[in-house]
């Protein structure tokens, strides 16, 4: 479940910022856009995924008719916190050296507002996610070799309903016989 949610969040970040395909990957893992410091790229790491509230249980006949097979569903609301790191290299100057840029910090600063657009709300909804809040963006620029690299970070919080299901056996029908005895006789009722 967490891996699927992480993939969905990566897709939302990529689409919201109109980033190239394969430019948003998992934190700490190799992906198609990794290692290309001059490109526009990001990573996503799930930090926390606690349950909120109590689970909701539902039961339904497997094929919609009375049967001994019932599907049991347990739905739990989860609050997912994802850390998103943005990386942007500077555009080369006339000598071919990367110029300093704040583009990664700009991405971290813009993502919260972008996720509130109707088009992105529809994307989130289609993926089963609800955007809740964002932390303050952080400027994490770093000196790599002799060049400064632009890096911005933000934590995004989403709600998602996790459903676990199982087919279980149940009683399709049965009968109960009740016998009531008294001085005047016995009454037997079968239902």
Please outline what is shown here:
Helices cover 19% and strands 46% of the residues. By secondary structure, it is an alpha+beta fold.
Please write out the topology:
Layout: H1 2-16, E1 24-26, E2 41-48, E3 51-61, E4 69-88, H2 103-115, H3 118-126, E5 129-134, E6 138-139, E7 142-144, E8 147-169, E9 177-182, E10 185-190
Parallel strand pairs: 1-2
Antiparallel strand pairs: 2-4, 3-4, 4-8, 5-8, 6-8, 7-8, 9-10
Task: Describe the structure in your own words.
By secondary structure, the chain is α+β, with helices and mostly antiparallel strands. The chain has one domain (about 1-190). The chain has helices at about 1-15, 105-115, 120-125, and strands at about 25, 40-50, 50-60, 70-90, 130-135, 140, 140-145, 145-170, 175-180, 185-190. Strands 1, 2, 3, 4, 5, 6, 7 and 8 form an 8-stranded mixed sheet that branches. Strands 9-10 form a two-stranded antiparallel ribbon. Strand 9 and strand 10 (about 185-190) form a beta hairpin. The chain is rod-shaped, with a radius of gyration of 27 Å. The model has no long low-confidence stretch (mean pLDDT about 85).
């Amino acid at each position: 479940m967490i891996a699927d949610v992480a993939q969905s969040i990566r897709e939302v970040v990529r689409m919201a910022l109109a980033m190239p395909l394969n430019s948003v990957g998992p934190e700490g893992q190799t992906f198609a856009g990794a290692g290309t410091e001059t490109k526009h790229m990001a990573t996503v790491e799930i930090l926390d995924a606690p349950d909120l509230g109590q689970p909701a249980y539902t039961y339904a006949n497997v094929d919609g008719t009375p049967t001994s097979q019932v599907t049991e569903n347990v739905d739990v609301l989860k609050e997912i916190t994802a850390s998103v790191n943005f990386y942007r290299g500077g555009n080369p100057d006339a000598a071919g050296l990367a110029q300093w840029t704040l583009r990664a910090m700009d991405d971290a600063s813009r993502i919260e507002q972008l996720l509130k657009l109707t088009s992105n709300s529809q994307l989130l909804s289609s993926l089963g996610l609800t955007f809740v809040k964002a932390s303050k963006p952080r400027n994490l620029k770093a000196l790599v070799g002799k060049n400064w690299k632009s890096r911005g970070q933000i934590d995004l919080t989403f709600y998602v309903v996790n459903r676990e299901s199982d087919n279980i056996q149940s009683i399709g029908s049965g009968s109960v016989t009740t016998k009531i005895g008294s001085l005047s006789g016995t009454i037997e009722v079968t239902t």
